[in-house]
């Protein structure tokens, strides 16, 4: 169970960053600034999680 938790901690920021990039791209195509903001927030959260994991 501990190994699964470690894997999830490693994969979660990557998935959040990918989802954020996709939200930004789709928000640009659909001309939706709110969706682009959500994408930037998701990327910021992914960066924050990575910083917490490194420290």
From TrEMBL:
<protein>
    <submittedName>
        <fullName>Uncharacterized protein</fullName>
    </submittedName>
</protein>
<keyword id="KW-0472">Membrane</keyword>
<keyword id="KW-1133">Transmembrane helix</keyword>
<feature type="transmembrane region" description="Helical">
    <location>
        <begin position="7"/>
        <end position="27"/>
    </location>
</feature>
<keyword id="KW-0812">Transmembrane</keyword>
<feature type="transmembrane region" description="Helical">
    <location>
        <begin position="33"/>
        <end position="54"/>
    </location>
</feature>
């Amino acid at each position: 169970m501990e190994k699964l938790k470690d894997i999830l901690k490693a994969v979660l920021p990557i998935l959040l960053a990918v989802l954020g990039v996709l939200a930004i791209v789709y928000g640009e195509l659909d001309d939706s600034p709110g969706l682009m903001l959500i994408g930037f927030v998701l990327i910021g959260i992914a960066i924050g999680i990575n910083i917490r994991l490194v420290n």
